[in-house]
Design brief:
binds alpha-D-glucopyranose; alpha/beta; single chain; globular; four-stranded antiparallel sheet
Length: 623
């Protein structure tokens, strides 16, 4: 394709801007290999080709975002996450539901895996057999293009998954590898016998110990393939630069189809090293910086969301630390914020949360922000370290066990109802599945008006947290109308062994309709969620680049943080208990509060007896 002179110049300038970010990494990763030179040439050609093929409207978007690089950090950003089939059957169906998203204030949607998965169990679509095709049950590429355009016309960004760590065993590469083609065998990690796998296993952890134990799968010919997740998800060999080249091509192709955000799945696992856990190895960050540079050169409107569900200390590096500062993920899931929300809610105590947020997370990150969430399609793992627990006088093991018992509902007095996911007897690890509303008490509340009121307040507390903490708040489908656990998953033989289907219901459109008015729990959650997102959008201090400072207001059940904007900073106070909590007005003034006006409810806050009274599970945003 012939490029105009202006397009050629723009490409050259962007290449110069990011050349070192890309090639310094690749040199380090692959410089020793004899095929490296040819591959870096091929990569350069790919970048040029993709840029030339980029549609004009997306090139314009590139420029717009070059000029407003903070677009994804702005307070108007609010996300919604769903499985296409569970939300609206097909991609065309989604287009008919866009008014619903608009009415919620959504400006970003994450379509859960929608590329062509393997037939049968595909781990919810995370076993892709063709990155160039849409899951035929959802539609085709034309439907995808038309949805992308419709979203863009409404100012809604489109996020989809890119599964980088593995392909389905049915992917063409894997099939050819299985058939013995040397080129493709080198795309995966295949061992002639189990001696190396056994050595690796000594330090590896198991992701699905219950349903997919071990990290390798024996093939019919006696060889072993690295399969971190399920036996049908074959890990790619990222030490082979050819894999990098292929995935860069996939990435740019999706970008040119109108994707704004790529959710890079399970990135912690990309690099393997004998004697390690094979998670978050330094090479992972080099790869991710290089991939980011690829986008910056040939599709700069695209940003990267990194899915690394790791410990607090490890997570931050996915937003670029040290030499990768400002050059790695634009977004990463704030897994700790999510875990700490549930922990504080069960304990009615924010001390652990305050400690973790304060000691592991800086007040700002460069060119990046968090994806904040309370629930998603996955389980909740209690990523609380013994050290952090110990720092606030807790025993880590006992606290994690308490949380599991609390959220299955076994713990006496628990308000929650959930299910265990992947119990690991070796480590004592017990993860939790369940919908936001059920874990927050709504299922158990039944007809009890007080218990219902508390459950509603807990849900809105969570939404107020993710809307104000800093980052893009992601609402998980159905949580805006407080959908309960879907126990029907047990009747589906493909889903029954995986309790995550408990919180992957079909959208209840009838309930959504009736929640538009009235005083039911669903209606109150819907109205509250809309208000939270609308108010967030109007508050400049909630921009992702504004520092967040974690404070200690006194009462254990209260979380406090200040968004330190140069003008009109906001103090956020959140009560994690069913008891009202007084916070000293004097203390608030000391933290800069000038007016006792709640920006969330848009009304004045009384300060009788020198204290602000936070209602049960209440949130206040004070200027
Ligand atoms: C991510 C997904 C999860 C999936 C795994 C393997 O963690 O969120 O659902 O099982 O990757 O692809």
């Amino acid at each position: 394709m012939a490029l105009s002179r202006a397009d050629r110049e723009i490409f050259e300038l962007r290449l110069e801007r990011s050349r070192a970010d890309l090639f310094d990494m690749l040199d380090e990763l692959y410089g020793q290999r004899s095929d490296y030179e040819a591959i870096s040439k091929a990569l350069l050609a790919l970048l040029k080709r993709s840029w030339a093929a980029r549609p004009a409207d997306l090139k314009r978007l590139d420029l717009q975002r070059d000029l407003a690089p903070d677009w994804f950090q702005r307070p108007r950003m609010a996300g919604y996450v769903f499985y296409v089939d569970r939300f609206a059957d097909t991609l065309a169906g989604v287009q008919e539901r866009l008014d619903w998203l608009d009415s919620l204030g959504i400006t970003y949607v994450h379509l859960m895996p929608c590329l062509k998965p393997r037939p049968g169990d595909s781990d919810g679509g995370y076993a892709v057999m063709d990155y160039g095709a849409i899951d035929p049950r959802l539609g085709d590429m034309a439907d995808f293009g038309s949805l992308a355009a419709a979203l863009r016309a409404r100012g809604i960004s489109l996020c989809i998954d890119l599964v980088l760590n593995h392909t389905a065993q049915e992917h063409d590469w894997a099939r050819r590898a299985a058939a013995g083609e040397a080129k493709y065998r080198d795309y995966y990690l295949i061992f002639e016998d189990d001696s190396l796998p056994r050595q690796y296993e000594e330090t590896l952890v198991e992701v699905f110990p219950d349903t997919a134990p071990g990290n390798f799968t024996r093939q019919a010919d006696g060889s072993w393939v690295w399969t971190t997740f399920n036996r049908f998800q074959w890990d790619l060999n990222w030490a082979n630069p050819q894999v990098f080249l292929e995935m860069a091509g996939v990435m740019l192709d999706l970008a040119n189809r109108g994707v704004d955000v790529l959710r890079l799945d399970a990135v912690a696992f990309l690099w393997k090293r004998m004697g390690s856990r094979c998670q978050s190895e330094p090479e992972v960050h080099k790869l991710l910086q290089a991939l980011r540079a690829v986008s910056r050169i040939a599709a700069p409107a695209l940003i990267h969301l990194e899915e690394a569900i790791v410990s607090p200390a490890e997570m931050l590096s996915y937003l670029g630390r040290g030499r990768h500062d400002g050059k790695e993920g634009n977004l990463a899931y704030h897994n700790s914020l999510m875990v700490q929300f549930w922990s504080a809610l069960a304990a009615r105590d924010c001390r652990l949360m305050t400690h973790v947020l304060r000691s592991h997370f800086p007040t700002t990150v460069t060119n990046a922000t968090y994806a904040t969430y309370i629930r998603c399609h996955d389980d909740i793992g209690w990523a609380v370290t013994d050290e952090d627990a110990g720092a606030v006088g807790l025993n880590g093991h006992l606290h994690r066990a308490f949380l599991s018992e609390f959220y299955t509902g076994e713990f006496p007095g628990s308000f929650a109802r959930g299910a265990l996911f992947q119990e690991n007897p070796a480590t004592g690890d017990r993860r939790i599945s369940g919908s936001f509303a059920s874990l927050a008490g709504l299922e158990r509340a039944g007809d009890d008006p007080l218990a219902t009121e508390m459950a509603v307040a807990r849900i809105l507390l969570g939404h107020a947290l993710i809307a104000s903490y800093g980052g893009i708040p992601l609402i998980y489908m159905g949580d805006e109308i407080a959908m309960l656990n879907d126990w029907g998953y047990l009747d589906d033989p493909e889903h029954a062994p995986d309790s995550r289907w408990l919180h992957r219901p079909r959208m209840d459109w009838e309930a959504a309709q009736s929640a538009q008015s009235g005083e039911t729990a669903a209606a109150r959650v819907l109205t509250g969620t809309r208000r939270i997102l609308a108010r967030r959008a109007a508050i400049p201090a909630f921009h992702g680049a504004v520092p967040v400072e974690i404070l200690a207001p006194g009462p254990e059940a209260v979380l406090a943080y200040r968004r330190r904007a140069p003008v009109d900073p906001v103090l956020c106070l959140l009560n994690f208990s069913e008891q009202p909590q007084p916070v000293s007005a004097e203390w608030c003034r000391g933290e800069g509060v000038r007016r006792f006006d709640d920006l969330l409810a848009e009304r004045p806050v009384p300060t009788d007896d020198g204290a602000v009274r936070l209602p049960p599970y209440g949130a206040l945003w004070l200027v």
